[in-house]
Amino acid sequence: MRGSLWQLGQSIIRRLSEADKKAVARRYFASVADLKKTVLYDFHVAHGGKMVPFAGWSMPIQYKDSIMDSTVNCRENGGMFDVSHMCGLSLKGKDSVSFLEKLVIADVAGLDPGTGTLTVFTNEKGGAIDDSVITKVKDDHIYLVVNAGCRDKDLAHIEEHMKAFKAKGGDVSWHIHDERSLLALQGPLAAPVLQHLTKDDLSKLYFGEFRILDINGATCFLTRTGYTGEDGFEISVPSENALDLAKAILEKSEGKVRLTGLGARDSLRLEAGLCLYGNDMEQHISPVEAGLTWAIGKRRRAEGGFLGAEVILKQLAEGPSIRRVGFTSTGPPPRSHSEIQDEKGNNIGEITSGGFSPCLKKNIAMGYVKSGLHKAGTKAKILVRGKAYDGVVTKMPFVPTKYYKPS
């Protein structure tokens, strides 16, 4: 327990630049009395959840099983995550699409109703304020979820631009869904287990699609998506129904779907090659540098019109100076801020996330290197505690994704 807490604390501190440490440390290491609790807090504790401070919330890092076992079980059977610390919100109004397109890189107008995509909120310099999954529920209703650690920053950013937009006659309003909780159900058993709890045919709901439907007697927002690379769902449920839904999911799985904490969630997303904001994406990193060029809609590349578009479109035309890549390595697992060198000992970049893969049984990592040194198979040296170990640029995802798509 002590080791897990220490590792979590160190991983959080490693995300911070020296200038930000004091301010952000207050956010992550608030006194226990100040921590917010999800409606499932007592449920986590009753099931052996080891609770730690995270982004101002008391969250389970793991349960009675190890992070290693929990990660493997999610890929083999399934895992259920309480992600109610994340912030869901809706934008409504006839101009909600055009408003949001001023802030994100996605072609929101081009989405069909009931479909969504990963996108990035950008700043004036083309850097990433946050990444988010957005869904066009209808032409006048957008649903999105932003990261817990970025909530205050994101909401202030959206509100500032919304005031200016409305002052010019734009029709858009918002609602922050603090009345709802968010559960993530991931893994091969996710769909068959959830199907027991709804009359809607989940086989007709594909990756990235969204529905409002009845699940276990409650009106839920259901998105077929997740943060593990597995098939699965994120379920926004009224908070008064969250506990019953969590119990029902575990019961219908006959013990195969397990409660899963932040530790395994981090291992799973790294194996899937997915960014963690604050590690792999920050305000000085553009979506192009982060390898998210695919998330910039074709129309948006032609028209721009979002914050930082001039910088981003120039990078698309000329290529970025750095690129996010994956690595496998020998020796101890590399961690955030481990230096990357070429074979002659010259600095070429830095690791942003790394660890031992529970499923692949080897070291994996991602980081940024100079363009030209980003191709798969490029050999490198990774410094861990001052000693250089062999590494090689590796294609991501490290573990093949299993998203449910039309055949």
UniProtKB/TrEMBL annotation:
It comes from the Eukaryota. Residues 326-348 are annotated as: Disordered. The glycine cleavage system is composed of four proteins: P, T, L and H. PANTHER family: AMINOMETHYLTRANSFERASE, AMINOMETHYLTRANSFERASE, MITOCHONDRIAL. This is Aminomethyltransferase. Keywords: Aminotransferase, Mitochondrion, Transferase, Transit peptide. It catalyses: N(6)-[(R)-S(8)-aminomethyldihydrolipoyl]-L-lysyl-[protein] + (6S)-5,6,7,8-tetrahydrofolate = N(6)-[(R)-dihydrolipoyl]-L-lysyl-[protein] + (6R)-5,10-methylene-5,6,7,8-tetrahydrofolate + NH4(+).
